[in-house]
Amino acid sequence: MTIRILDILPGVFTVGNLLCGFLSVRYSLSGEPVHAAWLIILASFFDALDGKLAKFAKSLLKFGVEFDSLADLVSFGLAPVVLVGPFLMGSLAPWAPILGFLFLLCGAIRLARFNIYFSGGEKTGYRGLPITMAGGTLAAYVVFCDHMWGRVRFPEFLLLLLILLSVLMLSTFHYETYPKLTWKGRRNRLRLVLFALCAVSIAIDPPVVFFPLALIYVMVGGVGGLYQFAKGVVVGQFSPKDH
């Protein structure tokens, strides 16, 4: 099999993703959580770019898919756990290692499931919360708290957020992908407009906007998944076929 230069380029951004995750862990262990959080957010941009570049280059190398997943596990699985662990203090401290490992485990399972079902075609949505968004949400919360209060507050909320993100990564709830860069289709036009508004909002005030937008994305998929599940149970319960 001939490997083109375009097949290698996405891997360069994957290396950037992995480097950000590594440096994030280093900054967290050095007591600089805000720098560590921003590196996780930066890693998410590298992750998005390597995917888009692979699609543009029509590079479907299995190596690239596996390499990207390994980098994601470091940057959005391990790095966020190391980042938020010290903030689960007091009575919550005993739960920090357990929930941290749970988050990492759920992220690894989420990535393995993605690799199994990856076909190289156009994604119409994600099955379960992407680990990129889960880890990015935790990082965005640290940045948000530092900007608003100068320190991370509400450890109980952080604990619940860690559990919620772990569960949603294991779920099969539908989560939206990036919109296509085309004006075709009413649904895609709406998604494109919303994406543009979000991008502008982030550009205006990143520390304030990142976390609320990430949390909205997480909750919309979660609530939508619960609604579909409840609807399926009700329809199944009262279906004429059952009587």
Could you give a quick summary of the protein structure above?
This protein is mostly helical and 243 residues long.
Notable characteristics:
243 residues; mainly alpha; 8 helices; Four Helix Bundle (Hemerythrin (Met), subunit A); single chain
- Report the helical percentage: over 70%
Mean pLDDT: 85
Q: Mind summarizing the main beta sheet?
A: 2 strands, antiparallel
- Parts with pLDDT < 50 across at least 5 consecutive residues: 234-243
Along the chain, the helix and strand elements come as HHHHEHHEHH
Spatial strand order of the main sheet: 1-2
Quaternary state of the chains: single chain
- Global outline: globular
Structural class: mainly alpha
Question: How many domains make up the coordinates?
Answer: 1
Give a count of the beta strands, DSSP E runs of length 2 or more.
2
Radius of gyration: 19 Å
CATH architecture: Up-down Bundle
Q: Termini, distance in Å?
A: 57 Å
The number of helical runs is: 8
CATH class: Mainly Alpha
Strand content: under 5%
Would you mind describing this structure in some detail?
With 243 residues, this protein is mostly helical. It has one domain (5-236): Four Helix Bundle (Hemerythrin (Met), subunit A). Helices cover 75% and strands 2% of the residues. The protein has helices spanning 5-29, 33-57, 62-84, 95-117, 131-149, 155-170, 186-204, 206-238, and strands at 126-127, 174-175. The chain has a two-stranded antiparallel sheet. Helix 4 (95-117) packs parallel to helix 6 (155-170). The longest helix is centred in the last third of the chain and has 33 residues, at 206-238. The radius of gyration is 19 Å and the shape is globular.
